Amino acid sequence: MKMFIKLSVASVSGAVVYLIYNVNQTLRKGMGTLEETNKTLEEVRNAVHGLTQESKQLIHSANQITADVKGKMENVDPLLESAQDVGEMIHNVTNSMKEASLEGRPNDLSTPSAPSTRTKAGGVQIKLK
Q: CB 123: neighbour CB atoms within 10 A?
């Protein structure tokens, strides 16, 4: 019986040693995996940080371009308004000349007025002396 107990204790001891060895190997592999995960996370953080900086610079540049374009549009706006006024004046002068020619008064060029809706069926004829 003593021999049986000695064999049992020896086999239990061997099993415990084998179990500790396997747990140790599993923990080492787990630590290796955790180290790789930490490296990967660090790389991701660096990449995200780099992208964030690039995005900030891009947004800053876009804001500068927008402000520049807005300023230039404000500078050009009076010029466009003046061009529109000149166009309206030319239109009014043309209409005055058209009305004067339709009424048979080629020398009567009065102050430009609003456009007329009156048209002549045969078209417009201007007589020059």
A: 6
Q: DSSP labels for 52-119?
A: HHHHHHHHHHHHHHHHHHHHHHHHHHHHHHHHHHHHHHHHHHHHHHHHHHHTT-TT---S--PPP---
Q: What confidence tens digit (pLDDT) does each residue in 93-123 have?
A: 999 998 888 886 545 555 555 554 444 445 5
CA distance 94 to 82: 18
pLDDT tens-digit readout, 70-84: 999 999 998 899 999
> How many Å apart are CA 1 and CA 66, to the nearest integer?
95
- 118: closest CA among 93, 87, 86, 96? 96
User: Token pair for residue 82?
Assistant: 């003046």
